[in-house]
Design goal:
This protein has 300 residues and is mainly alpha-helical. 84% of the residues lie in helices and 0% in strands. Helix 7 packs parallel to helix 12 and helix 11 packs antiparallel against helix 12. The two termini are 24 Å apart. The model has no long low-confidence stretch (mean pLDDT 80).
Length: 300
């Protein structure tokens, strides 16, 4: 199991670009809407404000210097946080209010019109940024399910009938263990303090039991699958896969920067979680003797 689990992770790194690619597609779609619509809204705002300001005498260099200083004063070592601040309603409203104060005497008669123009443009920018986030998250979710499908096809194929059987089996096992845990808590309150250890044990038992019922029935001896040794091995190999994935993530961050490193390296962690969820099934499948009869029985 140990060697098989580690090998599963490195073999499935061939799907590395799947989650990265779908996330990139989602982000590109979001940006392709966010930038032009936001620029159009801001351009319209500036055009309308310029029409209002054409009758005033304002030193625009003062406003320009203030805006530039406000933007450069943000912590650009953390670009994500800085962009989030820039596009927040509070920050944009504060900048506009400060600019209005600098030229309040000249703009006082036009304040309501200018505020309405700014509020409309800010609303559009925020809405487009939300749409960008939506497309990015959609790309991330789509990438996870597509990657899971590809990894499962590599590690543990199953028919639709087995998919349904596995869903029912997992639900019944989870419900039974939940009821058992609740009953144990009612009769022994301190059990809650060792729930994490129990959860680990339960995860190993349910993973191997479900994998046996879905893939190994009539093909492999039950005690050969579900025993203390295999439960411990499953936890150990899953921990190592998890640890290795984060090592790769930190290397990616160290070689680039926080933003690029996370964008590139999150795929290592995503694939690790998928492999961890399928290691028990892969192990049971590996135990089935390579005879035509048993292979046909397992595939049915």
């Amino acid at each position: 199991m140990f060697r098989n689990g580690i090998k599963n992770y490195f073999i499935n790194l061939k799907h590395f670009f799947t989650p990265v690619g779908t996330l990139a597609v989602g982000m590109i779609l979001g940006i392709s809407i966010f930038i032009p619509v936001s620029v159009a809204a801001l351009s319209s705002m500036l055009k309308n404000i310029a029409a209002v300001l054409s009758e005033t005498s304002i030193d625009f260099n003062v406003l320009k210097d203030y805006i530039v200083n406000s933007i450069t004063s943000l912590d650009w070592q953390d670009p994500i946080a800085s962009l989030k601040t820039m596009f927040s309603r509070d920050w944009l409203t504060g900048i506009i209010n400060d600019c209005l104060e600098l030229v309040s005497a000249e703009l006082q008669p036009y304040a309501d019109r200018i505020t309405a123009e700014v509020a409309g443009a800010v609303g559009v920018v925020i809405a487009m940024f939300a749409l960008f986030v939506f497309f990015s998250v959609a790309g991330l979710i789509a990438g996870f399910f597509l990657t899971r499908f590809l990894v499962r096809r590599t590690m543990a194929k199953r028919t639709f009938a087995k998919f349904v059987f596995a869903a029912v089996t997992d639900s019944l096992i989870t419900a039974a263990l939940f009821i058992l845990s609740a009953w144990l808590f009612t009769v022994w309150k301190p059990s809650i303090f060792i729930s994490s250890l129990i959860a680990l044990l339960i995860f190993g038992i349910t993973s191997l039991l479900s994998a046996y019922l879905v893939h190994g029935r009539k093909c492999v001896e039950f005690k050969k699958v579900l025993n203390i040794k295999n439960i411990l091995k499953l936890h150990l190999v899953n921990f190592l896969v998890f640890y290795i994935s984060f090592v790769f993530l930190f290397i990616a961050i160290a070689l680039t920067n926080a933003f690029a490193g996370i964008f590139i390296g999150f795929s290592f962690v995503e694939i690790a979680f998928i492999v961890i969820s399928l290691n028990a099934e892969s192990y049971v499948i590996s135990l089935i003797p390579k005879t035509p009869e048993l292979q046909m029985l397992q595939a049915a």
